[in-house]
Amino acid sequence: MSTAVDFPHFVRANQVEALPPPNLARGPIAWIRENLFSGVWNTLLTLVVFYLLYISVPPLLKFLVIDAVWTGTDRAACRADTGGSEAGACWAFIWDKLNYFIYGSYTISERWRVNIFFALLAIGVVWLLWLKAPRRDLGAVYFFWVFPVVSYILLTGGNESFSGRFWIGFLIFGALVISLFAFLAALLKTSIRPALILGGGIVAVIGITLALVDLDFGLAHVPTSLWGGVLVTLLVATVGIVVSLPFGIVLALGRRSKLPIVRMASVIFIEFVRGVPLITVLIMANTMLPLFLPGDMTVDRLLRPLIGTALFASAYMAEVVRGGLQAMPKGQYEGAMSLGLNYPQMMSLIILPQALRIVIPGIVNTFIGLFKDTSLVAIVGIFDLVKTIEASRIDPAWAAPTIGITGYAFAALFYFVFCFSMSRYSLGVERRLAAGQKR
Amino acid sequence: MSAQHIPSAAIDPKAQPAIEMIDVHKWFGEFHVLRDINLNVKRGERIVICGPSGSGKSTMIRCINRLEEHQKGRIIVDGVELLDDLKRIDEVRRDVGMVFQHFNLFPHLTILENCTLAPIWVKKMPRKEAEEVAMHYLTRVKIPEQANKYPGQLSGGQQQRVAIARSLCMSPKIMLFDEPTSALDPEMVKEVLDTMVGLADEGMTMLCVTHEMGFARQVADRVIFMDYGQIVEMNTPEEFFKNPQHERTRLFLSQILH
């Protein structure tokens, strides 16, 4: 093909057709040379990494798999002095204690209820997270209303037997909520009817929920002090995740609000909760919450750390979401406002969908942190997975040198599987959203 | 398409002005950006606003749909005075379309969704009808085939035409243009201007901040020249270009017309 480089005068006569790119694929040896040994420094690094892998991976595999003890009924299998093997992990211990790790001390004859809870949770998670699932709007109703109510009845046994006084109190509360909505509508000068419908709907949902919880389904009562293991860990994590995202969004919007009282309240909450270690929040929730409540009112001892972790995660979530809100260009707000969208519409349709997408990595980071932080509820006497392992570790029937390490290895594996899946899922969502709308 | 979606300004016989600005002042902190703005825009009138950068021309038209708040004076849009009442501001914004320099399309929505969003949520129009209206206006700005793409996949000129269609879907009575061609590649300016000329020919009330003097000559009923937050000169385009009165106007025109 001729070029025009040397000529002062050039007019293109024929169009250059688009060609496929030249084949850049090369053999594995070329790839290795280019990526691992491309210079002195790189070669050195590669060798160091290989050496580190060599001294860490084989012993780990040897301990966890090759030399591990897989069967056995008590400590004899994992002790050298009784003819067992001490060189590897004692998986027989995990197998023997597995039910305790999953259910804690939950009444043995009622454990099928926990299994149903796990199944319902799995259905809800898949329904919401699988982006192509049918009727995801129903999935949201299921996950945020049906599932919690059913789980509560299943796990505790329901049959709360509310008194007549309680129901009268609820009626007064309902009337207050509805009038509050009407008042807000009048204050914001929007039409009253949708506000009334919204307020009435909220009261109705709460009422139906309470009535369901009040009903006697013939399930035996299982006090929360018996719950434990994976059940508690998943419960605390799920409640924390489900509460912290919406509450964090509200806090983030509050912090950017123009109304000084709303802004101040959000800032004080966020900064206070963030400025205090989770352990302190948990201990405060455990010991101080009852002090603030009227004398005859008690809060369940599992509910206290649940509230504590949820509020703690919300404060972090609020800051993550605020980062996303601040990254939104001003033009997006102006475009939405110029079309006549009001504030809730602008936020829910235009700003939040984009802002939240920007901060997916941060949101999932907070979720992962929260998931692992659930192990701290042990500090207030809740038997989560780590605490059940701790308790089993000192069981004399399984007294053997490798028991502790095996227990913690099991916990590490459990946490890793969940956290890694969250991380992978969020990467998938990011990729999918990025493919849909190239900027 | 039925006739009901054609902007009603053209057939509205009411004598009341579309926009009235009376002694409007605005400050950004200590900085006095708008000073003594008095302007009456008749229905169906097309006004081009020009002036050096920082002269307050964008701020002025952004006051008309309350993207900026004025601190003194009165602004009355289509008979509704702009006060602090949020509900009335939303009412005004519903009737006043705005096209921005940087398009401000919503990147997470398709072109069609960009156009149907406000009719569905603000006007409570059924989705199907909103989509018909959107396709009507997308056809008018000559990009119906892009309806299911995302804004990021379109050229600048196409995006700006989508932005115009998005505003038209609300059947506005007044259209504000804030330097609609300034961020475009030279090759794309004409397609956007053609769309705007078409709109002007249909009798839309338009306020347009632009430096496209050819456009001003072709469609404007009045040209306004602003400097230091004030209206310095206002005249018909013929007189404005042929016979500028104010010293500052003459200097400005000599800078931009070669």
Helical/strand content category of chain A: mainly alpha
The whole-number mean of residue pLDDT values of chain B reads 89
The 3D shape of chain A can be described as: flat
Mean pLDDT of chain A: 87
Strand content of chain B: 15-25%
How many alpha or pi helices of chain A?
Answer: 17
The total strand number of chain A stands at: 0
State the strand order across the main sheet of chain B: 6-7-8-3-9-10
The number of helices of chain B is 9
Computed CA radius of gyration of chain B, to the nearest angstrom: 18 Å
Secondary structural class of chain B: alpha/beta
Oligomer: heterodimer
Secondary-structure element series of chain A: HHHHHHHHHHHHHHHHH
Task: List the uncertain runs of chain A.
Answer: none
Distance between the termini of chain A: 36 Å
Give the CA-based shape of chain B. globular
Protein name (chain B): Amino acid ABC transporter ATP-binding protein
Keywords (chain B): ATP-binding, Nucleotide-binding, Transport
Pfam family, one (chain B): ABC_tran
Organism (chain B): Microvirga terrestris
Question: How would you characterize the overall build of this protein?
Answer:
- The complex is a heterodimer of chains A (439) and B (258).
- Chain A is an all-alpha fold.
- Chain A has a domain at 67-106 and 229-328 and 358-439: MetI-like (MetI-like fold, Orthogonal Bundle).
- Chain A is built from 17 helices and no strands.
- In chain A, helix 10 crosses helix 12 (303-327).
- Chain B is of the alpha/beta class and 258 residues long.
- The termini of chain B are far apart.
- In chain B, the strands form 2 sheets. Chain B has a 6-stranded mixed sheet with strand order 6-7-8-3-9-10, sandwiched between helices. A 4-stranded antiparallel sheet of chain B has the order 2-1-4-5, covered by helices on one side.
- The A-B interface holds A 188-190, 331-332, 334-342, 345, 349-350, 353-354, 357, 436-439 and B 65, 67, 85-87, 90-91, 93-94, 96-98, 100, 102-108, 117-118, 121-122, 150, 152-153, 166-167, 170.
